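Final paragraph of the annual report: two paired records, presented back to back.
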Amino acid sequence: MNIFLPVPVRTPKAHPSKEEMRCPSPELARMHLIKGKDAIDRYLAKHIKGLSKQEAAAYRNSYKKNICIDMLRQGYHKSFAELFTLIEHWNALREAAGPGSAIWLEKSLAEQPDKLDQLHHFLTRAEAALRSEFYDEVYCNQLNLAYCFNKPEDRWLRNYFYEQCYKTAQLIKIDGGRREAEAHSNMGLVYEEQGQFLKAAEHYEAFYQLTVGRIWKDDTGKTLTSLACEHLWRIYTLLADKMLGNKEHQQAIRTLIKALEMAKEAGNKKMEGEAAYCLGLAYHTVGEEKTAIEKLNTYLEISKLLGDFAGLGRAYQAIAQVLVSLGEVEEAIKYMEMFMVITNKVNLGPSLVDACTFLGNIYNQKGNYSKAFTQKLQITPTSSTWWPGRRTEVTCSLTLFQLVARQKKMLNVYLDPLLLQTSSELWERF
C-alpha cells in the first residue's frame, strides 16, 4: 500500500574488517596433494561412504580436490561433508534456475578458489572448536563465513552461515545470551531482506528480550537494546503498511502503537516523529480524525524541534487533509498555506506540486475557480530534477479544472482574463 514514508529494508552488514580475517595462502591445500590416481580413489572411497569410483575421479586434478583431500587427511570429515553439501546445493540452484538465468552464467562454487579457501579455513577451525566444545569459537568462525559472502550472488551462502550461527548460539551458556541476541538480530535482518516480515519480527522481539536491561554495545557504540528498538520500529511499520493494504485497519493501528513505543524507548526523536505520523495516517483511514490530528501534531512538534522542514511540510499537509474530512475547510487552507511557505523556502519541488494541487482542489470544491486555477498555475518548474516526471500530472490537473468550470458554465464569471488564453499561451509560462 505504501501510504507511509518510505522505510528502507535493512540487510545484514558486511564485516568492517573483512580483509583482516582472510585465510592463509591458497598454497596450503596444494602442499597436501595425494600423489597417484589410484591412491586418491581409494582414499575417497574409504572415507566417504557411498562415493563411487566415478565420483571420486571427478575430484582429481581440480582445486576443489586439493581442498577436499586436505580436509580428509587432517580428519575434518564434517567440514568436508558440509563443503560437499554446499557445492551440491549450488549446483541444484543453478539447475533449477535454468539456462539464461544469472546464476547459470556464474562459475560454480567448486570453480572459485578464493571461496573454497575461505570455506576450508573457517569450516575446519569451527570443527576443531566443536570437538573441544568451544562453542563461542565455533560461532565466531561461522560468523566470519557469513561476513565473507555478502555479495548479492553469494547471499544464499551468507544466509546459510547465519542460520548455523543461530543454532550454535543456543549452545553458548557463558555470555549471558549475547551471542544468541546477535544471532536473532542477524536472522531478523535476513528475513526482513527476504520480505518475510512476520518471521523477522519474531527474531527482533527475541533480540529485544535478550538485550533489555543490558549494557551491551555494538561496534559503533550503540547499545544493543536501542538497536533492537530500532529494528522493531522499522519492522512494525513495514508490517502495518501491509496490514492497511489488506484492510486490516485495527491490527495495523495496534502494530503502529507498538512501533511508536519502540521509537520512544530507543530515544530517537526522528523515529518517534515518523511513527506518530504513520499512526496519525492510520487513524485517519478509519475515520478517527481527532486522534489522527493529535498524532500528527506530535509529528509537527518533533519536526519543529529537529528543524526538519520536509517533515513540517508533511505534517501540515496531513493535518489539512484530516481537517477537510472534518469539514473544517478554512482551517485546512491555513495549514496548506503554511505548507506552501515552507516548500517555497526550502525548494521542495515535488511537495510543492502536491500542495498546489491539493489546495487548488479545495478551492475548486468551494466554487472559487479563479483562485483554484491560479493556485494550480503556481506549479511551475523550478528544478529539472523533479519537473519532467510531474508535467503530465499538472497538465491533466489544469485540463480537468477547465472542463469542470465549463461544465458549470461559470468560466467567464469566475476566471480572470489569464484563464481565457489558449493552451499554447498558458504553457509558455512553463
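The closing record of the year follows.
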Amino acid sequence: MEWKKHFETDRLKLRPFVEKDHEPFTDLVEDRKVVRFLSMPTLEHLKSTKHLKDYTLFKTPEGKEGLTLLIRKKEDGEFVGITGLRPNDDPDTYHFFCALQPAYWLKGYAKEAGQVVFRYAFEEMNARVIKAGAEGSDIASVNFLNSMGMRMNTLAKPSLKSTIKPFELKKEDYGKRH
C-alpha cells in the first residue's frame, strides 16, 4: 500500500513522511526530553537516510505496513512532530506512536493528530486493536493515552525489566466514542 494520504485538522496538516523530512526528524530525536521515554534506534543509526527511511516505513517481513505522518501547524507550517502506526505481529493490530517537539506539549496537538490516526486505522485500515505503551513515570503520556480512549491492558505480560505500561483500544470501544 502506498501512503499518499494527507490529513488536515483545524490546526494541523499531517502528511506521509518522506526523505526530505530527515532533518526535522533527526532534530526531534536529538532532543533528550523527547526521546527519554521512547524506544528508538540510536541517533547515529537514524542519521543514515537509508536507515531512517527503513525505520519510518515500518514494514514487516510478511508485507504488513505501518504509517508515519509528519505533523505541521496549518497556520505557519512549523514542524510539530511525528505520529503514526507500527505494524504489530498480531493480525489487524497496530502500535500507535506520537512524538512532539517540547514547545508543542500540553497544547492538544498530540490528541488532535492522534484522533486522525485512530480514525484512519479503524475506518480505512480495518484495524481491530491499536496498542501503545507509556513509561509508568511519564504521567503526561499516560494521561494522553487515557484521553484517547485507550485503557491499560492489565492482562499483558511485560518483561520483568520493563516499566512500560501497555495500553490498547479495541475497534468496538472506539465505535462507542465516535
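The mean pLDDT is 81. This concludes the annual technical report; the extension proposal builds directly on these records.
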